Design the sequence.
């Protein structure tokens, strides 16, 4: 037992929950500040209703950008066909140009060669924009744990909803779409951009 | 993100503004089509050099879906590598499973019981129809016939219901495995397939009514993107891409496998090698598949659906918990797997896209030493630059649709 | 290990008869004699191992022979046997549509003294060989001479290494943060020169390892 350093008066440190992020909004996207009832003072009654209408409009007419990569793209096509009609939720307008889309459904495995293309398409989308990672390969690399597949699309773009499955059936994709719509209506902010270093630093990641 | 360095590899450099002679100069424009594009049927990138609207040169740039499937199969046992084969030609997973299973069975030197053999053929032909329906829906959609897309997917749902009944999964079933089928055909299988057989010919007639004699469709597809028989053969094409040009090569007839010699069916062959011929061949192939399925369902015997040897196929679960031998077989199969004798085999099957080949090399260990897949779309895509030279830009879309490429297969 | 795995309850596969195999082998041995190194047969399939020097001539002979006419080059692939000398098997699968024959040719190249081997291209015989050879170059590192420039076709153009070689790990090599793909090898140190992929930022500079940036730059 060596010399003990002078012990500081022990004060109970407030317990920090490491799973609560330090900041709630993304650094690269316009911060979606709480509006309406989520505001600290309850919000102005008139603006609350307007923002509710805006969010209802945004969630009910999400226009996906066509980003079907592999097998999940076929189930995405089935989701837009007549049996599982994505048009019920206002999302049947698959825009080929990312400039006109606000939702990117990354359907399929992302290979290393395709990753810069994905990021470029994501950057070309105007705000507000959301990303659904459809399928196991988009969520975490899926069956393919190897040199050629990016282990999860969230290494490249910020993902709002993950839909597991290989491939997920169209009704699972529609469930994921519904979750995203709820997220939009509840003003939940987008996750931080993985390519922005500072935004990915949270409590507990010391490197 | 700067894409310039990888976007223009040296060999793909094209020269715009070519000086033809003293007084003339041809100004061309190089544009990029894809990899994110609604009509490229996947992540295909085409670098097109245009003279006005006419294609002067087309260079496909692939690899945007390279998944390392062949390398992945080398680290998995034969039993487990089955699941990655589904994901290559993802429009016809059962066809890939079938080729893989035949290759592994050939390595092992075994054959499957009669019920499995005939049921496999019925399932693969159903898968052929499903794949052709996706092809028809998406190609028609590219050329503007939007309602055909909805009709085709409606019919495809019926086929996927049959697969879901058998295996629980719509696509990527891995239902055909080395040794037979994963599980017995369920009781409702017969009724469901026969109901489909009764309903589908009318639907097929509907598609013919919509497209085959349609003035607009004929203008968009007749004489478009032709390729001669010698060129198609020289580029290694197979399937409808080759048969459209008049070359009669169908693996089911040329190198019969799996019991196809017992079935009575025809092979449609075209003459002009243009988009219309390839379209018509696939439509007629769907009819022929219906014939095969009808014969298969009539000839389907009762009996075992997989090989009796429990070293290759897993024992039934109720036996595993009561029988010691079954427990050991189960354990050995799932941890180590069976060891085929050393050697190499090449098995070719007729997938909906063409001649699908599986080259498997075994070194006597439990894992495939090399699994190479000869993807028909890989070879068919080589013929695309030849097809679209001199065509208009809009014809490229028709040509890609008519070759019916699946990028999962091209890039593996 | 037993030569034939006796499996109970499963009838042995009837090996298909390949009637023109002998004719093809006879053609090759008549014309090239010493160039034909070995002829093997397994499960009814014939494989002819040839000397790489006579490969193109042999392919042309098989394609043009009146009774054989191997007009379809079905596939070219490669197999890596790292402990064997020569290391790579380049495998050619040929099909004759008129005569319904099929044969497999092999050329063995590469090894310790020749880590990046070269072999003549058969593109002059069948143009289909183009992309097959590019794929083998990309995944195995075997160069084909007598045709245009070799380029990578499946991997990104600036990729290091040849993935399907047996000494390339399945998970690839560690890449600088942020990772596009691959993972760190669990038990090996990072080899030098691998993983030069860098993050290209919008102003054109390249960050070698974004994890080492200080908080001030963020």
Sequence:
């Amino acid at each position: 037992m060596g010399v003990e350093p002078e012990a500081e008066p022990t004060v109970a440190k407030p317990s920090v929950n490491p799973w609560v992020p330090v900041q709630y909004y993304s650094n690269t996207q316009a911060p979606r500040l709480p509006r309406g009832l989520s505001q600290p003072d309850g919000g102005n009654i008139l603006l609350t209703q307007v923002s509710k209408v805006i969010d209802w409009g945004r969630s009910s007419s999400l226009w996906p950008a066509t980003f079907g990569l592999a097998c999940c793209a076929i189930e995405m096509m089935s989701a837009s066909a007549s049996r599982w009609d994505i048009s019920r939720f206002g999302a049947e307008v698959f825009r080929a140009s990312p400039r006109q889309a606000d939702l990117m459904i990354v359907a399929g495995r992302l290979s290393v060669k395709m990753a810069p293309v994905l990021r470029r398409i994501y950057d070309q989308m105007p705000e507000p924009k959301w990303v659904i990672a459809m399928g196991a390969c988009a969520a975490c690399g899926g069956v393919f744990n190897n040199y050629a597949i990016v282990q999860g699309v969230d290494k490249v773009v910020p993902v709002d909803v993950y839909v597991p499955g290989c491939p997920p059936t169209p009704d699972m994709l529609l469930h994921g779409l519904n979750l995203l719509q709820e997220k939009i209506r509840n003003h939940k902010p987008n996750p931080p951009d993985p390519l922005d270093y500072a935004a990915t630093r949270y409590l507990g990641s010391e490197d | 993100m700067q894409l310039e360095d990888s976007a223009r590899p040296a060999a793909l450099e094209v020269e715009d503004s070519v000086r033809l002679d003293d007084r003339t100069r041809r100004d061309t424009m190089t544009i990029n089509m894809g990899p994110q594009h609604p009509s490229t049927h996947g992540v295909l990138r085409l670098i097109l050099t245009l003279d006005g609207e006419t294609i002067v040169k087309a260079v496909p740039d692939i690899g945007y879906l390279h998944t390392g499937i062949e390398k992945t199969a080398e680290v998995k046992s034969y039993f487990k590598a089955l699941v990655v084969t589904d994901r290559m030609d993802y429009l016809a997973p059962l066809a890939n499973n079938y080729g893989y299973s035949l290759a592994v069975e050939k390595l092992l030197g075994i054959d499957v019981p009669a019920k499995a053999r005939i049921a496999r053929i019925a399932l693969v032909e159903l898968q052929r129809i499903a794949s052709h329906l996706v092809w028809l829906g998406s190609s028609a959609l590219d050329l503007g016939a939007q309602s055909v897309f909805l009709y085709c997917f409606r019919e495809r749902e019926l086929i996927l219901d049959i697969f879901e009944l058998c295996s629980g999964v719509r696509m990527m079933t891995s239902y055909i495995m080395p040794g037979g089928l994963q599980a017995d055909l369920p009781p409702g299988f017969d009724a469901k397939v026969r109901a489909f057989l009764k309903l589908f010919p009318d639907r097929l007639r509907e598609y013919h009514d919509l497209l085959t004699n349609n003035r607009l469709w004929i203008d968009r597809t007749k004489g478009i993107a032709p390729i001669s028989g010698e060129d198609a053969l020289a580029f290694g094409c197979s399937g409808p891409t080759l048969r459209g040009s008049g070359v009669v090569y169908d693996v089911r007839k040329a190198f019969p496998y799996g019991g196809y010699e017992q079935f009575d069916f025809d092979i449609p062959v075209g003459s002009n090698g243009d988009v219309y011929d390839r379209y018509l061949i696939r439509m007629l192939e769907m009819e022929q598949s219906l014939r095969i399925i009808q014969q298969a369902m009539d000839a389907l015997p009762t009996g075992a659906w997989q090989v009796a040897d429990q070293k290759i196929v897993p024992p039934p679960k109720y036996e595993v918990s009561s029988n010691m031998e079954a427990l050991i077989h189960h354990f050995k199969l799932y941890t180590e797997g069976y060891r085929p004798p050393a050697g190499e085999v090449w098995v070719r099957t007729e997938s909906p896209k063409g001649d699908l080949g599986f080259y498997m090399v075994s070194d006597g260990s439990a894992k495939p030493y090399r699994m190479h897949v000869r993807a028909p779309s890989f070879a068919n895509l080589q013929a695309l630059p030849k097809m679209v030279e001199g065509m208009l830009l809009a014809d490229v879309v028709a040509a890609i649709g008519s070759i019916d490429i699946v990028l999962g297969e091209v890039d593996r | 290990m037993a030569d034939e795995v006796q499996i109970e309850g499963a009838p042995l596969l009837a090996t298909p008869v390949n009637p023109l195999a002998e004719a093809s082998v006879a053609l090759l041995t008549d014309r090239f004699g010493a160039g034909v190194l070995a002829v093997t047969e397994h499960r009814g399939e014939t494989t002819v191992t040839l000397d790489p020097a006579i490969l193109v001539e042999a392919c042309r002979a098989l394609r043009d022979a009146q009774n054989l006419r191997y007009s379809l080059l079905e596939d070219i692939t490669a197999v890596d046997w790292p402990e064997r000398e020569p290391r790579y098997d380049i495998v050619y699968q040929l099909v004759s549509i008129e005569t319904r024959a099929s044969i497999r040719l092999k050329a063995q190249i590469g090894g310790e003294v020749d880590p990046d081997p070269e072999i003549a291209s058969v593109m002059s015989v069948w143009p289909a060989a183009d992309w097959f050879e590019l794929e083998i170059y990309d995944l195995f590192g075997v160069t084909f001479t007598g045709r245009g420039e070799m380029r990578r076709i499946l991997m990104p153009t600036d990729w290091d290494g040849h993935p399907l070689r047996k000494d390339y790990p399945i998970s690839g090599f560690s890449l600088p943060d942020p990772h596009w793909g691959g993972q760190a090898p669990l038990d090996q140190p990072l080899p030098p020169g691998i993983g030069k992929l860098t993050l290209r930022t919008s102003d054109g500079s390249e960050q070698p390892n974004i994890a080492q940036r200080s908080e001030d730059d963020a």
